[in-house]
Every structure is written in structure tokens, then in C-alpha cells.
Amino acid sequence: MQFSEVIGLDEQKVALRSEVLNDTIGHAKLFLGNAGHGGLSLALAFSQFIFCKERNEKDSCGKCASCLKVKSLQHPDLHFSFPVVQTLGRTSDPFLQDWREQVVSSAYFSLNEWIRRIDDKERNAIISAEESQEILKKLSLKSFEGGYKVMIIWMAEEMNATCANKLLKILEEPTRDTVFILLAEQFEQLLTTIVSRTQTTRIPRIDADHVREFLRGKGVKQDNLEALVSRAEGDLVLANELLDVQGDQAGLREQFVQLMRVCYKKDVLNMLDWAENTAAGSRERQKSFIEYALHMFRQSLLKNYTQDQLTRVSSEEEQFLSNFSKFITGNNIFDFTKTFNDAHYHLERNANPKILFTSVCFKVMRYIHHA
Fold first, then answer.
1. What residue spans define the domains of the chain?
2. How far apart, in whole angstroms, are the C-alpha atoms of residue 257 and residue 252?
3. How many CA atoms lie within 13 A of 226 on its CB side?
4. Which of 49, 155, 338, 350 has the lowest CB atom count within 10 Å?
5. How far apart are CA 333 and CA 129, in angstroms?
6. What residues have CB less than 8 Å from 258, skipping those under 6 apart?
7. Structure confidence at residue 46 (pLDDT)
8. Low-confidence residues of the chain: pLDDT under 70
9. 268 to each of 256, 336, 362, how far by Cα in Å?
10. Which superfamily does CATH assign the domain made up of 3-204 to?
11. CB atoms closer than 10 angstroms to residue 133
């Protein structure tokens, strides 16, 4: 992957190019940010720039043998470590073909998406102590092509404590011409001793213009474009998920409208019906609804306080918000967002959806009358 293929992140690209061109490459890096912000794409482009035989000041050539090997994830000095389901395999190596297929198809994917690819039961995945032994073994060998060796550890926060501790020494005193790139979303889940041995690069959200261009390339029409840009929040994983449910956008909107109406009327029987119908949907559909509801709460607040200057909604949503937004104010927005964020959290942890959405209904009924 070339830097030109990485969406956004211009400042980070400049810094990484400078390290290579000035021969000041840091031996251990931590790219910190959501998977949808592009840390993996940046790591791949950086690796290709390091290996390229014909690079210029801006990018790798994309044509030499080294570039072609990195592009297909077949370079002998580019290594990967990532979470795997332990009952299926203890290390990353048995899953390398799946990994290559996933990354080549799109380098913007979540841990949940990766787990679904390798395990139809969607069990928990970690980076184990056995994996750390494989990492040490691979990096103890000489470089195949006489240059750098690069180890990319994706979702590094999923290393268990034994694995992380075994890597401390090599992170502090790596073998010659070895570069570690750790990718993580949750800073607080990393061992402080790991963080202290790495140079942290924050991977920020992708700016709205680049997200807009990405969505246009996916065929999103102008009428719905701004609403999707707003909901994506600079995260291309989320943008792709939104595209998957885009055909159900009208359904999500109607579901939200129904919830607000029955709760405003304090119509308990219909509230219970709504909770039961919502609970009957798939887990992904339920999470999509919660994310949509959070989007509508934010847009309501923006409509109230910015005179529509910052709202990003479709024409149908705009029509609904013209009457609804007055019920979302500084008095209740915190309660709404906390309730729905908590619901999302509990769904991720397999909460009973009927109980969960029944609770949401009664909380919404209370909040909507405290505007």
C-alpha cells in the first residue's frame, strides 16, 4: 500500500516519510486510534516505504519487487500478529491466508469483523503467550532481503499479560534494523510498560471531506450523503457499517419516531410492544438502531443551538426534527446519550434485549417530559 492510498492522515504521513528519508526510524511505534481511522493502512504504507527500492520523497514506487510483495502481504520481512480464537489456533500463522484476504479486500475493519471471518461462533480472540514466542523466533532470524524487519501487531491491547511481558525486552532492545508497529484502540488496556517503550502516534478521525469522498465512491447519493458523513464521525469502519444498513435507513427512522411518540404519549402497552419488536431483531440491527438514535439526539441539539448551521440530516429527518428537536435540550441530552450508550455497551455483552429495550422505553418516557 502506498501513502497515496491511505485516506487522510496527511500530517502523520509527513512525519513517517521524514523518519525514513533521514534514517531516524524509531524501533517501536504505537499507532493509537480506532480501526476505522486508518492506522493499519498507515502502517502498511510506512512498511512499504521502508522496503521500497525506488522510493521518492513522497511515496514508495508501487512497482518494484518489494512493493509488490508488501501489496500482496507476502514480503518475507513483513510479519503480522493479531488476535485469534484460541480453540481454533494458538498463533497467527494458521490464519495468515484469512488475514491477507481481509486486508487486501479492505484495511479498514474492526475486531468484531475479523472474528466473524475466522469463527462462525464469534468467540473471543486474544494474542497469546504462544504468539509472543513466535514473534521472538521470527525476529531472531536475519532479514531475508538484507534490510529491515517489520512486525505489525494489530489490536495490541488484546495481548494477554504473559504475552505482553515476554515482549518487553525486545521492545526495549530490539535486534538490529527491527521495527515494531503496535496498533491499538484502547490505550487504557495496554500495559504501561509497553506504552513506555513505544513512540505514540495518535491516529485522528478522518476529516469530513475525505469521508464524503469515500462515500461518494461507494455510490451514496447526495440526499443522504451529509447524514451519513455526520453519523460516520470520521470512522470508515462505521461508514461501511452504515452503508450495509443504508437500505434500512427508512426503517431505522420509523423505529425512532415510533419510540419517541409512544413514550411522549406515555402509552405503556405500545411501549412494551415496541420493546418486544425491537428485541426480536438481530443484535447488529439493534446496535444500528442505538447508533441511529444517538445521531438523532445530537442533530436535535445542533438544530436547537446552531439554527441548522451544523445539522447533517436527510430531508425526511429534517422534516421530523422540525417538530421533535425542541424536546432535546441541555436538561436531558446527557440522560438520553448515557442511556443509549449504556444500552450499546450491554448489547455488546449479550444483555437480554427485551429487558434492555423495555428499560430504555421507560427512561425515554421520563426524559422526554423534562426538556
1. 3-204, 245-368
2. 9
3. 13
4. 350
5. 44
6. 274
7. 98
8. 245-248, 307-313
9. 16, 19, 8
10. P-loop containing nucleotide triphosphate hydrolases (3.40.50.300)
11. 14
